[in-house]
Amino acid sequence: MSNLPRWPLPSASTAGEPDATGTARPAEGWVFEDPRSQSLLETIHQVAPSQASILIQGESGTEKEAIARYIHQHSPRRNGPFVSVNCGALSEVLVNSELFGYENGAFAGAFGSVAGRFEDAHQGTLLLDEIDDLPPSMQNKLLRVLHERSVQRLGASQRTTIDVRVIAATPRRLEQQVAARRFREDLYYALNVVTLDVPPLRQRPGDILPLAEHFIGLYSRRMNHAPIELSREAIALLLAYPWPGNVRELENVIHRTLLLSRGIRIRADELRLPASAQAGLPPPAPSSDDSAPQHPQAVLAANQLLDEALESLCDQYSEGLEALLQNALLLKVWQRNRLNQVQTARQLGLSRSVVRTRLLRLGQLSPSGEAIAPTPDGPPCSPSAGPATGQ
């Protein structure tokens, strides 16, 4: 499977659009890096060009709709509509008119003729999500639609021919629903020409870090944040956590972390995962961007370390020491605030204009005022960088 194509995840605005070669990229929320995902991708590429109905089974949060969109994008129907219906969100009263449409006067409040989702998806693909929640009466109608390739609106006397590929999705094992007599067996076989079992995130660990990095990049851009990376301990925690909410939970964790964390490196504790997830993990290594200690004894220890560092600097530098310390403090606070000038100015107790002038002098801002990502060796902090008064 090493010869299978791989694509970078797109942003929300480009999900499903063709790339420079004309090949559609995967829908957001799915990568195919883990061997199990690669196996699923191989099956998808085999069945996507067909007209067969497909049943997608997987836990909640595994982004089954993203898989359905990917199938649509790689099918002959890619230029037609993709329509998604959540059957579990519709009441038994509404599901009939939602799927099949209605004519004027079909029921109280029915004004005008309205096409249903099947007609909306004509010459395209219709995803019936949470298909197992479809009421029994609608299961009978759906089976007839699949057999006759036509629908009848509520209040209409004629049937309308449709050309639709149906993809069904469910978070449950549909064969168990059939055995419990909660789902029609003949409808199950009509939908289940091909079954795609989507593995949960915990069973495809090779996808966890690529997904996390994708969501970090996505939300950093949306929030106008500087680049941020995962610490070693955060990576270990992400890989150890079982992710009961799957991809959707991972996305929410990354989004929340970026909203609440500080600095340019995400620590394990900033992920705010359940304490049980950290059992068995190695103790975190000291990090230069850890929050300042708050315990009185820890504060005294930190002050002692600061005093020793200042003593050492006084021994090393006979001049320019104030500029060195100002530059170092400014750059550390700026990095801790993810290159945000307003937050940096607030923490230092300075005006934003002063902070901006100093950063420009240190080469950390472009002439247009955009932040320049720090280099691995760090920005200049020596006295030769010049005094950082900015006034």
Automatic annotation (TrEMBL):
Stretches the record annotates as Disordered: 1-25, 366-391
Top-level taxon of origin: Bacteria
Keywords: ATP-binding, DNA-binding, Nucleotide-binding, Transcription, Transcription regulation
GO terms of molecular function: ATP binding; DNA binding
Domain Sigma-54 factor interaction: 30-259
Annotated Pfam families: AAA_lid_14 (PF25601), Sigma54_activat (PF00158)
Database matches in CDD domains: AAA (cd00009)
GO BP of this protein: regulation of DNA-templated transcription
Ranges in coiled-coil conformation: none
PANTHER family according to UniProt: TRANSCRIPTIONAL REGULATORY PROTEIN, TRANSCRIPTIONAL REGULATORY PROTEIN FLGR
Protein name in the entry: DNA-binding transcriptional response regulator, NtrC family, contains REC, AAA-type ATPase, and a Fis-type DNA-binding domains
